[in-house]
Amino acid sequence: MITIDIISDHVCPWCYVGKRRLESALAQRPDIQTRINWRPFQLNPDIPREGKDRLEHMQSIFGEERAQMILDKLPEFGAPDGLQFRYKPGSKAPNTLAAHTLMHWAGEIGDETQHQLQELLFKANFIDCEDIGDHATLAKFAEEVGMDPEMVLAKLKAQADEELVIGEIRDSQKKGVSGVPCFIFNNKHSVEGAQSVENLVSVLDQLNAANS
Length: 212
Description:
This protein is α+β, with helices and mostly antiparallel strands. It contains nine helices and six strands, in the order βαββααβαααααββα.
């Protein structure tokens, strides 16, 4: 069994690409057993809880011309990995703390539940342009993976376990994680960035050989 901890943020396009490439690598090695744990990170922790206009947020980081260029290039950015990135005017740049907290609860149920939820959140943000900082939206996705939406709404409103999630983010930062995605294999070997499928297959093969 190879354990893979993936430190990521739901608003990081490379994290979604990295997820797809890892899935492709695992599909090439069906005999290798893995357990995937998604770990939180916030690229923009200072975004208000209600979120910001996505275009305005990007313009504040990159400037008007570059922000528009990035949005225009989104479709071709995700295409090689089968992802149809989109931008819809008026869509939000969310604060992702609530989404990470929901992911933490999903992980308590099981890694498969957490993995399914992560896909829903990535798709909602990058393809459907939904507001994944909105509690009702998060409760909808929670229900889709078998969680109790009313309980989720109540816990999100109470900001339950947020300090725990923030603590986990700080722990990763103390260990030197400054960007995402970051893949940590068997709590020892870290690989940063959206690696190629070939590189990920190579890592899996090396670890599998070491475990044999």
